[in-house]
Design goal:
By secondary structure, the chain is of the alpha+beta class. Helices cover 34% and strands 18% of the residues. The protein has a five-stranded antiparallel sheet, with helices on both faces. Pfam families: HIT.
Length: 157
């Protein structure tokens, strides 16, 4: 754990149990805090890694396994049309992936058919859906995702 790193702190914080989805010895998957968007997830290696090139092979494999399963579950929900996977490292240097579900209503919200601007959707809805706490609809998605990861559910460390 790297002191001062928000991702390291999130993975070690027992208070985020309601948003915790799954983890193994290599990576962790949890619901993004303070955004009222069910299925907006963060996937990160447990080890404080800054660059993709610094990941061990086992970390890459674990991240891909969790990413693929999360995408499958999210795309299996009624309103999710696409899942964006974004990694910036600008504010928080700990390598992490935002798994952002683009819903049907986002695609239909003021855009021309076929003209969805993914980065603009991401930025807009992160701000528009900011909240305090964890709404029940978000917790319901967390429970659904947990059921897809039965072996890893209790692997916080």
């Amino acid at each position: 754990m790297n002191q001062g790193c928000p991702v390291c702190a999130e993975m070690e914080n027992p208070k985020n149990q309601d948003r915790w989805i799954a983890g193994d010895s290599e990576c962790a998957l949890y619901q993004m805090a303070n955004i009222a968007l069910p299925g907006y997830l963060v996937l990160a290696p447990r080890r404080h890694v800054v660059r993709w090139a610094d990941l061990r092979q086992s970390e890459r494999e674990s991240i891909e396994r969790f990413r693929g399963l999360a995408e499958e579950v999210l795309l299996g929900t009624e309103r999710v049309r696409k899942v964006y996977f974004l990694s910036f490292g600008e504010i928080c240097p700990h390598l992490h992936i935002h798994c952002f579900p683009r819903t049907t209503w986002m695609a239909d919200d003021g855009t021309e058919p076929g003209e969805v601007d993914g980065p603009a959707v991401f930025v807009h809805y992160r701000k528009a859906l900011a909240c305090s706490g964890t709404p029940e609809e978000v917790l319901a998605m967390v429970r659904r995702l947990r059921s897809a990861f039965p072996m890893e559910r209790n692997s916080r460390k």
